[in-house]
Structure formats: structure tokens, C-alpha cells
């Protein structure tokens, strides 16, 4: 994580200065992806990888549901079941929802704030590869003796060496540490991008809501990750080097683990849900043709959630026996975090109220989010009644609750986001008819799976049990849930088919602005050129693009500027005949290469200096799991520490080479100014733009570019 | 030394601290990233220090603070580390006025002071182990070694960073216009020092119950 | 714009499409949910948290029910607004120009303050209940019990009464039972839903809770904190008895263990095997062995279940258990002793004498 600090050369690396590896130059093909530093490609990599893990985690969920479909199930052994439910939770949180959010952050944030890339493009690539290797590392456990089986919460002392002597938990500890590095570095990058690189005129309160949620979420990651890092380090020292942090025999307190874990774990919940809230806050106004109701309140309530999220962690520990004072305080704080959340729900309702609602698939998912997340929020309030939480906690009632938040909330929002931004990212609209089938099966399957769990839990079925007795009176409900889970699986297949269908057999070009949208990313072509914008737009208002298309009359009604168009109708989308090349009749300037089929001018032709691809992010990221394998097996045989040493050498070697490599390879100088090889920053002032300063590219990593 | 900056592309020289481009905050990306990173580090050390604090006086057996600590010795090594912050400031001042020779002198001084601190810590660790306190002995041993060890690793990384800067400067690749790199490294270095003040107070000076 | 004209046809398709399969599907799900819920309800629900049977559980329930009602009202409000908005403000023409409302401070203040006030009221009652249920009763009328969680069974210790039993907690009705909770290994959670909310059993800590029952009956429960491989197999029962039955139970369990009579050679041989096969190193039988890994077996036959309350106590179940415990309860600390069928018969004969 100290890569930021690596010192950097002062002069441009001359082409004769070889470094360790020659600078990669592949414009296409697999190596172009391996070495890419383009935030859009990295976003796509994040998304595809996370979706793959979603299928894996979903498969695990189906196994769990099959095992529990009937009492005394025999699909899985106790041992296997514990591994599967641990990996399901760990996967869905760390390998699915966080990285899918990261995919959207990466792809959209620079576009939404009018930047050419993120602040540190190579560091961004490093985040992705670290995440990928962390995921592979975690899953390699299945082949190397057994997956983690201590639950995603890994409570000590069950995870200590005494009760979990195998390597299962070691994989979990190191896997989460690796993923923590990826998230922290990614968050750092986004924070700097959002605070420093917004287009001229875009003050913080003109920043799109999704970007705001990204900022808050990134700050939560930045501050929450070190806490779980410490918890994992303490557990690792206990397991590897015999320290006593969670050893009750030596006076260690297992509750310390819980405090550290949930001090991370509760902000984590908001890390997972805030991005989806941001997506929904973008989708609803577009398909209601109304601005987001109370933008400042939406922003401030999210900031409030971000702060209050740090003061409620003990509600995960109401049954630990912390005494009435602590329990009372955290009961009350938990109740009050519902207030800003409730404000958001009512503001969303007010946004669609008296709007002109167009039921695209994205809109349906966003509306579904409101409906389902409300249920999760309300069951959350019932948890804050701590005396009754002692009846609810660790039962299926809690499972129902957080699936309504993370599936009904986060995943509904994310699916809405996928349908909404897919055309921007890939240039084709997803089929709306399949989309609607996708939505309705998703909604029905989801409720069929998780609504019964409220009742299952209140009837006394605990979580994390591989078998239950038929006398509990939950047989039918469990079967219903299992059937529901397969409807969700069907829905996922519909989605996959939709992607395939819409990208191959039935392509509907999207154009730059298929939804009649409001924010900057819709000003450039779909997909955008690697430099994002021909010219960095100057921002005058919130919803900049919208205000370039429409104004309001004296009664506040919408008036198109220059006879502009409304977006395609729902029927147009449904039949897929809607979108001839996107009109740019209202002059927002990108129609020329609207589909991206006509070749864009290259960055070079436009005089834009973009960061160059690099091998070092992936090499540096590769070192981390190698070091971890060394430690992991070093526990059983000291000679394996050799692997750790090799990993550390690789780490320092690639970091050194990284530091010596300029962020952007100097081009043939086409004007005097480029001689210094220092790409100028994106958030240049309007003055500079007017002065015709062409080379607006992101700054180098780690001060890497030379001056 | 002016010869150093002479080897650098001339247009760079007149760029000020912000590299001549404007960000929304006015801070360069690198500096802002370092501040954010240090914010994250606060939580890391906060959690470690809290752990030490919670386990103070809770050890069931084995040596505890009173039998082990040599406060005068650690005070001296703490003073050494604090002095390194001063030399770090002098290094930054040197590069900002273009004095590259002094920059290198102060960078090396800072690194040496840091290294003496680490040497002192290694000596302290070995003497503790000789007296029968290891990471396995008791809660005190576990939390002491992990907390101070983490800090030691941070100092070591800082030393590597300082020596890399020194090396760059030697090779003429650290012109005055890039003085911000030194400033950013300095931010890290000062942070690590401040953390040590907290650790020294919490771990060594506040008496534990037992 | 011209392209759009034919699409209007597409628009008119929609109203047909909607009510048919969407409504039918939603209705089907709702009906299935209700039907299944009710069908299950037909039988008695042994761990139903919404069916409190003791004063602690009732107090918790009385606090929660109004909150569920409030939550239900908010739920109906939000979902109704959502559905109404969706039906009413559906775009009917592409030229619609809705009024651009950017916000409304008064409205936003209202839906900040109203929920906050509601929650404040709930908070007051909640804090009151928390303080109430955390009071540990003391006095001669209070029964003290120590619960120790083990992987994966429960030990119940009655201090001052020289009784140690497992998996079945006997208590007298209408009596405050002050439970002290400890763990022998990892974290468990003691949860008899009809009598009280769960409290964790944490190694290195001592927790307290109060349990009581109004009616003589057997109440079910189980460990609620994931505690390793056989977490699912760590169940428990609370047997609430009338005063007379309880006194008899105490007398029976405090008595010295029965000796196998010489007329039962199997039992005599079993007693010897109990020691020679190593059972004695883990299990206590008062006056004969003093192991503390597994349950105390002094009065085994006073119980109705064994092995974390997952099996009824009978010869058949004991036989399969003794053949291979880890096959019956995954991860069981009791190993497979590789006993012959004859040895098993003899051991069971001995265990049957432990009345």
C-alpha cells in the first residue's frame, strides 16, 4: 500500500532506458487487457470477474437450499455445508457486491465527473489484479484441503488453531487480507479522483448522486478496511506464531474479535448498499423525467449514514452479554440510523410522484429496489429492539433481513444499473422483453426465497445449521424457499441469455444518449473513446446534460431546448426498433461517432496524452498471493517460507520497476509543452481549456510521471 | 546543487509545488492520496493501540511491563526518532531552495536516525526475549510485540523510501521541481513519528494495573 | 419521429400483457406462501419465538409486537405509494412535460422528524425493558443453574444440589431461574425461544440470564451461535415441572448411582468395560469415574435424549451411537472405540442401570 510513495524518476524515461520489461504497446488482444490502465477496461474486468463469482456464489446458495429443502437433508455433509455457507457469504460480500460496485465506480466515476481517467491508472489496474488473485487464492482452498468453514464472520475462538487446525481458516484470513488491499487501494484512488479531478465548474454539490455515493462508500472502505485488517492480523498471529489475542486460556477475549469485526462489518453494510442507492438515484429521475427530489438532502442523508454507520456495530452483538448500558445505547443509535434511510425512501417516492414514468427494465429494478429495500429496512428496525433481537439474532429472520437489504437492495440496484449503463459500456441495448422476464422472475423468485425466511426464523430455526428436525414446523416454508431460489437461478439464466442475445443476434445500437439522461457520461459516444471526451465539458449545473437539453417554463414545466427529443418510448425499446443513431439535434456534440463504429480519432490525433499500459500492476499484485501461500504453508513447515521470500522479492522488484516507469510514455513531442512528459491533470481550469491546452490526461501514479 | 537540476528538462524548473496543473482541491493528487492513506493508517494503529490498551494488565502469567521495561533506554531511542523528524524537515527545506547536496545529507541523516531507532528496537526485542517475554508468553507479550512490530515495519519502509530518494537525487533524478515527492515522503515519516509518541505514551509511560 | 408512429401499436399490447401473467404469478406466490405457512402451523411449533410461555419471553414479546405493527403500517404506506405512483404516473405520451420539482423542505423535514419521534417513543420502552430483563433475581425462592456449553452438548449444573446433567434442563414452574452461562470451548448461544431470548456462552466470560415457565411442559431450544461442525446437532430441552415432580427429580438425581446387580452379568461386564475401554476417562459416574470431557452419566436414565438432544434415549439409538459416534454426530469428540457387538450389549446393559 505504500506504492504511492515510491520515489520517481525526475526525467522522462528515455526510450533507450529499458527498465526491466519493455513497455507494453498492444492495442488489442489479451495482452492489451492484461496491461491496461484504462479505467473503462478495468471496470469491465471488475464487472465480468465479479459476475463470474456471482454465479459461483449463487451455485453455493443453490446447494444450501437443496440441503435445506427437506429436514435431515443429505445433499451435503456437515463439513461441506459449513464450507459452502462460509464461502457463499464471503463470496457474495467480498467477491460479488463490492467488486461489482467497484466495476461501476471505475467505469462511471471519471465519465460522470468529466475526467479522462482515475487519478492513478496503474494503481487502479493493481487493485483489480489484487482482487482477482485474492479471489483465486480464496477458492484455491477447495483444491488444497478444504475451504474456510468458520462463517464469513469467523468468530474466535472457533477459528483458532485449537478448534480449526486445518488450513481452511488460513485461506480465509489471507484471502480477506488480500481483498482488503485491493479495496483500500481502489478507494484511495476514487477519493482522489472525485476530490481532485472533476470537470471545470463541477462543484461538489453539482456532482451526480452516484459519484457522491461512490465518494462516501470509498471513505467508508478507507476507514473500515484497516480495522478488519488488524483483526485478521491478530488472528493470523494467533494461528501462525502462537500469540494469545483470542486465547481464553491466556486471558484473551473472543469478544475483542467481535468488536473489531463488526466495527468493520457495519460500515461494510453501507459500503455494499450506498452504491446501489446511487444507481437508483440516477435511474429514477431519468425515467420519471423529473429531477431527484431533494438532492442536497439525499447527499446529506448519505453522509449522515456514513457517520452513524460507525456507531451501531454492537447491534450485531446484542446476545453477547455486554450489559444493559451498552445494549441500550446501541439499541437507540440503531433506531436512529433508520431516520436518514427513511428520508431516502420517501425522497425516492417523491421523485417518481407526478413524474412521467417509463417502465424500462432499469426502472423496474429501481422501483423493485424501493419496495424490497423498505422491507429490509423495517425488519432492521425490529432488530434494534434489542430484547426481541435476542429472539431474532442468529436465526433465519436475520437471514431474511439482510437478504432483503443486500439482494432486495444492493442486487436490485445493481441489476438496474446494469440495464441502465450496459448500452453506454457495450454500445448495445439489452433486450427489454427479456429484461422484463428477467425482472419479474427475479422479483418473484426473490420474495419466494426470502419472505418465508422471516417466518422460518421466528419459528425458531437458527442460521448456519446443516440439518433441522421436521418437528420445527418449517418444512413447507423451507421447500418454498428452495423453489424460489431456483426461480432466481432461472432469472439469472434469462439475464445471461439477454446479454448474449443483445450482443450477437439482435444488436440494437444505443447511441450516445438512449435514455434521455441527465449526467455527463451520456454526452460521449457509447462506448466512449479511451480518452472519454473529445473536449472536457464545462459544467454549469447539477444534471448538466439535462440542462443542455431542457429548460423549465415559469410553471416549472419541462421545455425542450431547440425542439429537442424525448427519449425513445417504452414500446420502441421493447421492439428494439427504437434507436437509430442517437440524435444530437440538440447539439450535445457526440453524434459524429455515436456508435463507436466509425473510428474515433486517436488520442494522439486530438493531442490528448493518455497514460500508457504497464506490466507492473499485475506483477506486483501477483506477488501478494505468493507471499500468502508461503506464510500459509510456512505454518506447517518452515522451509515453505522460501516462497514468502520469493514473493517479497517479486513485490519489491516490481514496485521498483513501477516507480522507475513513467505513468505515460512520452510521445513524439508535438509541441514544446509536452517535452516535460508530464501529462496535465484532467480537472484543468476553463481558462486552460480555452487556452487550447490539449493534453488533458490523468496524472501519473505515485508522482510517477516525470517533470 | 544547480548541476542536478540542469540535467532535467528545463521547462519543468518553473513549475511550482503543484506541478503547474490545477486540481479541485489545490492539493496534488499524490499529496491528497497520502493524506487519505494516513487517515486509513490512523484506524490501523488505532485498532492496534486499542487492543494493547484493552489487554493491559490482563495477562495471567509471565513477565509484565514493570519487570521488563527500561524506560530511560526507550526514551533515548524515542528521542532519536523524534530528531529524525527535524532532519526530515531540513531535507525538505534543502530541496525547496535547490540545495541538493544538503538534501542528500539530511535524507541520509534521517534514514540513519530511523535505522538507529530500529536497531534499538531489535536490541529491545532480543533482550525481552532473553528475559522470557515472547509473543507466545502472555497477552502482554502478544500485544506488545505486534503493536511495536507493526510500527517498526512502518519505520523500515520509511527508511527504504528515504534511501530511494537519496539514490534518485544522486542520479540527478530528483530536481527542485519534484520537491513535492520529498514533502510526501516527509508526511509519511512525520506520521510514523507521531504514532510512536502515542505508542510510547500508551505502552511505556502509562502504568498498567499490575 | 416518424419511426415512432408504428410503435404505438406496441404500446397497446402492454395492458393485456400486464394483468395476466404478472398478477397471476404474484397472487400464486402469495397464496402458496399463506398455504404453506398455515399448513406448517397445523402442527405445534416447538421453538416458536412468537409463542412465549414464560414471563421473560412474554415481556420481550409485548415490547416487540407494537413495533411489528408500526413497521407493518410503514410497510403498507410505502408499498401503496409505490404501486399508486407506478399506476398513476405511467407515461402515456412522449410529450409529457412534468413539473420539475426539485425538493420541498417542509415535506422532507416532516419525514425526518416524524420517524425520529416514533423511534424515540419506541426507544424509551426498549431501554426500560432492557433494564428490566437484565435484573438478576436473588433470594431463597430463586433457583440457580449453571449452563456450560460444550462442542456439541449442554451441561447443566445445579450448585449446592450435587446434580450435573446434560441436554435436558429441569426447572420448577413459576420459579425465577437465574442461569449462569459459561463455555468449555468455543462460543455457543443458549436459546429456549418460548422461555427467553438467547444469550451467548463465551469462553473466558460469565453471562447471566433469567428463565421461567408458566406451565409444566417440555420446551425445545438449541444452540444459536455457530460453534463448529455439529452446530446443528447441539439442541436442548427445558423440562418445566410441577413442584412435586421437581422435588422428586431432585431427589432421584442427587442419589448415589445404582450398582448393577450380580444377577445381570452383562451389566457387570459393562461396568468393567466402561473403565477398560476408556469411557471413564471422559465421563463421570459419581463414585466410579471422574472424566469431564463428556456428559456426566450418573443418572443417564433420568434423561429422555442424548448426544446434544438429537437422539431419543433407547437401546437401539445407544447401539448405533456406540458403534460409531462421529457417524451419528459429525465431528463428535467421542471417537469410534471399535467395540464389538457383545461389548456394546454389555455397555448398554450397564448404562441401563444408571437410573
Span from first to last CA of chain C?
A: 91 Å
Percent of residues of chain C in helical segments? 40-55%
- Based on CA atoms alone, the radius of gyration of chain C comes out at 30 Å
Helical content of chain B stands at over 70%
Overall pLDDT of chain B, averaged?
86
Task: Indicate the topology.
The complex is a heterotrimer of chains A (707), B (210) and C (355).
Chain A: H1 30-34, H2 39-68, H3 78-112, H4 121-140, H5 168-196, H6 209-241, H7 254-288, H8 295-308, H9 324-352, H10 361-384, H11 386-392, H12 396-426, H13 432-458, H14 475-503, H15 544-549, E1 550-552, E2 558-560, H16 570-575, H17 603-606, H18 616-634, H19 641-660, H20 686-690
Antiparallel strand pairs in A: 1-2
Helix pairs in contact in A: 2-3, 2-4, 2-14, 3-5, 3-7, 3-12, 4-5, 4-18, 5-6, 5-18, 6-7, 6-8, 7-10, 7-12, 8-9, 9-10, 10-12, 10-13, 12-13, 13-14, 18-19
Chain B: H1 2-6, H2 29-54, H3 65-68, H4 71-96, H5 100-130, H6 139-170, H7 179-205
Helix pairs in contact in B: 2-6, 2-7, 4-5, 4-7, 5-6, 6-7
Chain C: H1 7-41, H2 55-88, H3 105-133, E1 143-150, E2 153-158, E3 163-166, E4 168-172, E5 177-183, E6 188-190, E7 199-201, E8 207-211, E9 217-222, E10 235-241, H4 243-254, H5 265-276, H6 279-282, E11 284-285, E12 289-290, E13 305-306, E14 311-312, H7 315-323, H8 325-328, H9 341-352
Parallel strand pairs in C: 1-5, 4-10
Antiparallel strand pairs in C: 1-2, 2-3, 5-8, 6-7, 9-10, 11-12, 13-14
Helix pairs in contact in C: 2-3, 5-9, 7-9
Summarize the structure in words:
The complex is a heterotrimer of chains A (707), B (210) and C (355). Chain A has 20 helices and two strands. In chain A, strand 1 and strand 2 (558-560) form a beta hairpin. Chain A is globular and about 75 Å long. By secondary structure, chain A is mostly helical. Chain B is mostly helical and 210 residues long. Helices cover 43% and strands 17% of the residues of chain C. Chain C has helices at residues 7-41, 55-88, 105-133, 243-254, 265-276, 279-282, 315-323, 325-328, 341-352; strands at residues 143-150, 153-158, 163-166, 168-172, 177-183, 188-190, 199-201, 207-211, 217-222, 235-241, 284-285, 289-290, 305-306, 311-312. In chain C, the strands form five sheets. A five-stranded mixed β-sheet of chain C has the order 3-2-1-5-8. A three-stranded mixed β-sheet of chain C has the order 4-10-9. Chains in contact: A-B, A-C. At the A-B interface, helix 5, helix 6 and helix 7 of A face helix 2, helix 6 and helix 7 of B.
Amino acid at each position: 500500500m505504500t506504492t504511492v510513495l515510491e520515489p520517481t524518476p525526475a526525467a522522462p524515461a528515455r526510450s533507450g532506458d529499458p527498465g526491466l520489461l519493455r513497455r507494453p504497446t498492444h492495442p488489442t488482444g489479451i495482452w492489451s487487457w492484461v496491461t491496461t490502465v484504462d479505467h473503462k477496461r478495468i471496470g469491465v474486468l471488475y464487472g465480468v470477474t465479479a459476475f463470474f463469482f456471482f454465479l459461483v456464489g449463487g451455485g453455493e446458495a443453490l446447494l444450501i437450499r437443496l440441503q435445506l429443502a427437506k429436514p435431515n437433508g443429505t445433499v451435503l455433509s456437515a463439513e461441506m455445508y459449513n464450507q459452502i455457507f462460509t464461502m457463499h457469504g464471503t463470496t457474495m460480500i467480498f467477491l460479488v457486491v463490492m467488486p461489482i460496485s467497484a466495476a461501476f465506480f471505475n467505469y462511471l466515476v471519471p465519465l460522470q465527473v468529466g475526467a479522462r481517467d482515475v487519478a492513478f491508472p496503474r494503481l487502479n489496474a493493481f487493485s483489480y489484479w489484487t482482487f482477482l488473485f485474492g479471489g483465486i487464492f480464496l477458492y484455491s482452498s477447495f483444491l488444497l484441503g478444504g475451504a474456510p468453514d468458520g462463517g464469513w464472520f469467523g468468530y474466535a475462538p472457533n477459528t483458532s488453531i485449537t478448534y480449526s487446525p486445518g488450513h481452511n481458516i488460513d485461506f480465509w484470513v489471507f484471502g480477506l487480507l488480500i481483498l482488503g488491499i485491493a479495496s483500500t487501494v481502489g478507494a484511495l484512488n476514487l477519493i482522489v479522483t472525485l476530490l481532485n479531478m472533476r470537470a471545470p465548474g463541477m462543484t461538489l454539490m453539482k456532482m451526480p448522486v452516484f459519484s457522491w455515493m461512490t465518494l462516501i462508500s470509498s471513505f467508508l472502505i478507507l476507514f473500515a478496511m484497516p480495522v478488519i485488517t488488524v483483526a485478521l492480523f491478530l488472528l493470523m498471529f494467533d494461528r501462525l506464531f502462537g500469540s494469545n489475542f483470542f486465547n481464553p486460556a491466556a486471558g484473551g477475549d473472543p469478544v475483542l474479535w467481535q468488536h473489531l469485526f463488526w466495527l468493520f462489518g457495519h460500515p461494510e453494510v453501507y459500503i455494499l448498499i450506498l452504491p446501489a442507492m446511487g444507481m437508483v438515484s440516477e435511474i429514477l429521475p431519468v425515467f420519471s423525467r423529473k429531477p431527484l427530489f431533494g438532492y442536497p438532502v439525499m447527499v446529506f442523508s448519505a453522509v449522515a449514514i456514513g457517520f452513524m454507520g460507525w456507531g451501531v456495530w454492537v447491534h450485531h452483538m446484542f446476545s453477547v452479554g455486554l450489559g444493559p448500558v451498552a445494549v441500550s445505547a446501541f439499541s437507540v443509535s440503531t433506531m436512529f440510523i433508520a431516520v436518514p434511510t427513511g428520508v431516502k425512501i420517501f425522497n425516492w417516492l417523491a421523485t417518481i410522484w407526478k413524474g412521467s414514468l417509463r417502465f424500462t427494465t432499469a426502472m423496474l429494478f429501481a422501483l423493485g429496489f424501493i419496495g424490497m429495500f423498505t422491507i429490509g429496512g423495517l425488519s432492521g428496525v425490529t432488530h434494534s429492539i434489542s430484547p426481541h433481537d435476542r429472539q431474532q439474532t442468529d436465526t433465519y429472520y436475520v437471514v431474511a433481513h439482510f437478504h432483503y437489504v443486500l439482494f432486495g437492495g444492493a442486487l436490485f440496484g445493481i441489476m438496474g444499473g446494469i440495464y441502465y449503463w450496459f448500452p453506454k459500456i457495450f454500445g448495445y441495448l439489452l433486450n427489454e422483453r427479456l429484461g422484463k422476464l428477467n425482472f419479474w422472475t427475479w422479483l418473484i423468485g426473490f420474495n419466494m426465497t426470502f419472505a418465508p425466511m422471516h417466518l422460518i426464523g421466528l419459528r425458531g430455526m437458527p442460521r448456519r445449521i446443516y440439518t433441522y428436525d421436521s418437528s420445527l414446523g418449517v418444512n413447507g416454508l423451507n421447500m418454498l424457499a428452495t423453489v424460489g431460489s431456483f426461480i432466481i437461478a432461472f432469472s439469472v439464466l434469462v439475464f445471461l441469455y439477454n446479454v448474449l442475445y443483445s450482443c450477437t443476434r439482435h444488436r440494437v445500437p444505443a447511441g450516445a444518449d438512449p435514455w434521455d439522461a441527465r449526467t455527463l457520461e451520456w454526452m460521449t459516444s457509447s462506448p466512449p473513446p479511451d480518452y472519454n471526451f473529445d473536449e472536457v465539458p464545462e459544467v454549469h449545473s447539477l444534471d448538466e446534460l439535462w440542462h443542455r437539453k431542457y429548460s423549465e417554463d415559469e410553471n416549472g414545466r419541462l421545455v425542450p431546448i431547440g425542439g429537442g427529443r424525448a427519449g425513445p418510448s417504452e414500446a420502441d425499446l421493447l421492439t428494439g426498433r427504437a434507436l437509430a443513431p442517437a440524435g444530437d439535434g440538440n447539439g450535445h456534440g457526440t453524434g459524429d461517432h455515436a456508435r463507436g463504429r466509425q473510428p474515433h480519432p486517436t488520442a494522439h490525433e486530438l493531442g490528448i496524452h493518455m497514460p500508457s499500459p504497464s506490466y507492473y500492476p499485475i506483477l506486483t499484485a501477483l506477488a501478494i498471493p505468493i507471499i500468502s501461500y508461503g506464510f500459509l504453508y510456512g505454518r506447517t513447515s518452515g522451509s515453505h517460507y522460501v516462497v514468502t521470500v520469493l514473493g517479497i522479492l517479486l513485490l519489491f522488484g516490481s514496485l521498483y520497476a513501477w516507480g522507475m516507469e513513467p505513468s505515460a510514455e512520452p510521445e513524439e513531442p508535438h509541441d514544446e509543452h509536452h517535452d516535460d512528459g508530464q501529462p496535465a491533470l484532467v480537472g484543468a481550469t476553463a481558462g486552460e481549456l480555452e487556452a487550447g491546452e490539449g493534453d488533458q490526461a490523468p496524472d501519473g501514479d505515485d508522482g510517477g510521471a516525470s517533470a | 546543487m544547480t548541476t542536478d537540476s540542469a540535467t532535467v528538462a528545463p521547462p519543468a524548473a518553473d513549475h511550482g509545488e503543484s506541478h503547474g496543473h490545477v486540481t479541485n482541491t489545490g492539493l496534488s493528487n499524490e499529496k491528497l492520496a497520502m493524506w487519505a492513506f494516513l487517515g486509513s493508517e490512523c484506524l490501523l494503529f488505532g485498532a492496534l493501540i486499542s487492543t494493547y490498551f484493552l489487554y493491559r494488565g490482563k495477562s495471567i502469567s509471565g513477565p509484565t511491563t514493570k519487570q521488563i521495561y527500561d524506560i530511560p533506554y526507550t526514551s533515548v531511542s524515542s528521542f532519536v526518532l523524534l530528531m529524525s523528524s527535524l532532519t526530515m524537515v531540513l531535507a525538505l527545506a534543502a530541496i525547496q531552495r535547490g540545495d541538493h547536496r544538503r538534501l542528500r545529507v539530511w535524507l541520509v541523516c534521517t534514514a540513519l536516525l530511523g535505522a538507529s531507532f530500529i536497531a534499538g528496537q531489535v536490541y529491545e526485542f532480543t533482550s525481552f526475549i532473553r528475559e522470557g517475554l515472547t509473543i507466545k508468553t502472555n497477552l502482554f507479550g502478544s500485544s506488545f510485540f505486534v503493536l511495536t512490530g507493526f510500527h517498526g515495519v512502518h519505520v523500515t519502509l520509511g527508511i527504504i523510501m528515504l534511501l530511494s530518494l537519496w539514490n534518485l537525487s544522486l542520479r540527478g533524478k530528483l530536481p527542485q521541481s519534484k520537491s513535492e515527492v520529498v514533502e510526501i515522503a516527509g508526511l509519511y515519516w512525520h506520521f510514523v513519528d507521531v504514532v510512536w509518541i502515542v505508542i510510547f505514551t500508551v505502552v511505556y509511560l502509562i502504568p498498567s494495573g499490575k | 419521429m416518424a419511426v415512432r408512429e408504428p410503435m404505438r401499436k406496441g404500446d397497446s399490447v402492454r395492458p393485456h400483457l400486464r394483468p395476466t401473467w404478472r398478477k397471476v404469478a404474484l397472487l400464486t406466490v402469495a397464496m402458496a406462501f399463506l398455504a404453506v405457512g398455515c399448513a406448517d402451523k397445523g402442527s405445534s411449533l416447538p421453538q416458536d419465538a412468537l409463542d412465549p410461555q414464560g414471563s421473560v419471553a412474554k415481556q420481550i414479546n409485548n415490547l416487540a409486537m407494537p413495533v411489528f405493527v408500526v413497521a407493518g403500517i410503514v410497510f403498507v404506506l410505502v408499498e401503496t405509494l409505490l404501486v399508486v405512483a407506478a399506476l398513476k404516473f405511467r407515461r402515456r405520451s412522449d410529450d409529457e412535460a412534468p413539473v420539475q420539482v426539485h425538493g420541498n423542505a417542509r415535506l422532507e423535514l416532516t419525514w425526518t422528524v416524524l420517524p425520529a419521534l416514533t423511534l424515540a417513543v419506541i426507544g424509551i420502552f426498549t431501554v426500560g425493558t432492557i433494564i428490566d430483563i437484565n435484573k438478576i433475581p436473588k433470594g431463597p425462592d430463586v433457583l440457580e443453574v449453571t449452563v456450560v456449553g460444550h462442542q456439541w452438548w449442554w451441561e447443566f449444573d445445579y450448585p449446592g444440589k450435587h446434580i450435573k446433567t446434560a441436554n435436558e434442563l429441569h426447572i420448577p414452574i413459576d420459579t425465577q431461574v437465574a442461569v449462569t452461562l459459561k463455555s468449555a470451548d468455543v462460543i455457543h448461544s443458549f436459546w429456549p425461544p418460548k422461555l427467553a431470548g438467547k444469550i451467548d456462552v463465551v469462553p473466558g466470560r460469565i453471562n447471566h440470564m433469567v428463565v421461567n415457565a408458566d406451565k409444566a411442559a417440555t420446551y425445545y431450544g438449541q444452540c444459536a451461535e455457530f460453534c463448529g461442525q455439529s452446530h446443528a446437532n447441539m439442541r436442548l430441552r427445558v423440562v418445566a415441572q410441577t413442584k412435586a415432580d421437581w422435588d422428586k427429580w431432585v431427589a432421584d438425581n442427587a442419589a448415589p448411582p445404582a450398582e448393577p446387580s450380580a444377577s445381570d452379568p452383562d451389566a457387570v461386564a459393562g461396568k468393567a468395560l466402561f473403565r477398560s475401554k476408556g469411557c471413564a476417562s471422559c465421563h463421570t459416574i459419581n463414585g466410579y469415574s471422574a472424566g469431564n470431557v463428556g456428559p456426566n452419566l450418573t443418572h443417564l436414565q433420568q434423561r429422555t435424549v442424548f448426544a446434544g438432544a438429537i437422539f431419543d434415549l433407547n437401546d437401539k439409538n445407544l447401539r448405533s451411537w456406540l458403534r460409531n459416534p462421529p457417524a451419528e454426530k459429525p465431528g463428535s469428540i467421542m471417537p469410534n472405540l471399535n467395540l464389538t457387538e457383545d461389548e456394546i450389549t454389555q455397555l448398554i446393559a450397564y448404562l441401563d442401570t444408571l437410573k
